[in-house]
Amino acid sequence: MTTRTLLITGAGSGIGAGIARLLAEAGHHVIVTDIAVDPAEAVAAEIRAAGGSASALALDVTRDDSVAVLKDHRIDVLVNNAGLQHVSRLEDFPIDKWNFLVQVMLTGVARLTQAVLPGMRERGFGRIVNIGSIHSLVASKYKSAYVAAKHGLVGFSKVIALETADTDITINTICPTYVKTPLVDRQIADQARTHGIPEAQVISEIMLKPMPKGVFISFEELAGITGFLIGPHARNITGQTITVDGGWTIQ
């Protein structure tokens, strides 16, 4: 296996932290980033304590000056994972919050990708893995900003795949259903309040009911798919949507 330097956004907790830990175990060096450096450093320290290689970096994907520091780093693999959620009817959705979600999960992805592509082209190698969502493919009520951003991510990936087809750079989007993270825990509470139902009913009737498999997606699954996409056997997989939905969209 060739070891790579990976930069993962939003890796101070949740999916990003899970992927960081597992890919570090596979021997890669991981740059753990988050909007605040302390949670990123906590994850990086945990990786180093377990014998892996990791560093931490404060990174705000919505700001050009924050992203500009990446020119000083070698990045073989970019994992665009940073995300957030806000659950509200559109009539009650603050437009600044709507814009912020799109800035983080769509414009921020473009900003990061734009920053790392020159170095990848110079070295003749690069892998970009976007963490999308089942909501890149389907919709749910009260999530207009999130669904719009995640749908846009799929289209963005296809365009960049065409623009990088002349070199050994790939870009793909992994689209999982619900992963049990602090973000999803907050969604459970938000959905319970918005729908006026108990949290247990949100899990069984809204989150897991559409999935024939009926289980949450694990960090191990997402890290394994990411590891495959950045490896040599996936060099001709680009612009693709990797759906990890327990059978949701086959119905």
UniProtKB/TrEMBL annotation:
The keyword Oxidoreductase applies. One of its GO terms (molecular function) is 3-hydroxybutyrate dehydrogenase activity. It is an enzyme of class 1 (oxidoreductase). Its EC number is 1.1.1.30. Keywords: Oxidoreductase. NCBIfam families: PHB_DH, PRK12429.1. Belongs to the short-chain dehydrogenases/reductases (SDR) family. PANTHER family: 3-OXOACYL-(ACYL-CARRIER-PROTEIN) REDUCTASE, 3-OXOACYL-[ACYL-CARRIER-PROTEIN] REDUCTASE FABG. This is 3-hydroxybutyrate dehydrogenase. It comes from Tahibacter amnicola.
